[in-house]
């Protein structure tokens, strides 16, 4: 059994979404985990709220780490990744951005996408 500290140190991936504040925290997550799904969202965004349980499930049930990025608090980070609308999901694998998905997607589609890079 791993502890939360071991999971955060890279012995596994977090089973809950991790809130990221700034480029250095996102860079750290991308460096620490093989696959990271970054969820660029806003609290006022209805579709983002609809997507929330999906990303929570993916964090719990896949080998990807899920990073939550509040675009209102991290406007420069959102701009750096070309986020023009929320929700936008950016998938990183082996330290590189490999996918970008704009809008609400179903759990099955997102799970399949993540599993292409974690298998």
TrEMBL record:
Entry annotated with the keyword 4Fe-4S: no
Gene3D superfamilies assigned: Glutaredoxin (3.40.30.10)
Gene Ontology cellular-component annotations: cytoplasm
InterPro entries: Thioredoxin (IPR005746), Thioredoxin-like_sf (IPR036249), Thioredoxin_CS (IPR017937), Thioredoxin_domain (IPR013766)
Keywords: Disulfide bond, Electron transport, Plasmid, Redox-active center, Transport
Molecular function per GO: protein-disulfide reductase activity
A Pfam family of this chain: Thioredoxin
Renumbered residue ranges of the record's region Disordered: 1-20
Location of the Thioredoxin domain: 9-119
Keyword Metal-binding tagged: no
Name of the protein described by the UniProt record: Thioredoxin
Native source species: Halomicrobium mukohataei (strain ATCC 700874 / DSM 12286 / JCM 9738 / NCIMB 13541)
């Amino acid at each position: 059994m791993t502890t939360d500290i071991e999971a955060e140190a890279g012995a596994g991936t977090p089973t809950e979404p991790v809130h990221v504040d700034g480029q250095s925290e996102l860079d750290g997550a991308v460096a620490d985990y093989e696959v990271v799904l970054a969820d660029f969202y806003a609290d006022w965004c209805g579709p983002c709220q609809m997507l929330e349980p999906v990303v929570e499930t993916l964090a719990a049930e896949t080998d990807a780490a899920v990073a939550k990025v509040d675009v209102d608090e991290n406007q420069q980070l959102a701009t750096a990744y070309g986020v023009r609308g929320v929700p936008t999901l950016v998938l990183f694998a082996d330290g590189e951005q490999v996918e970008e998905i704009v809008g609400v997607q179903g759990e099955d589609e997102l799970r399949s996408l993540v599993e292409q890079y974690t298998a």
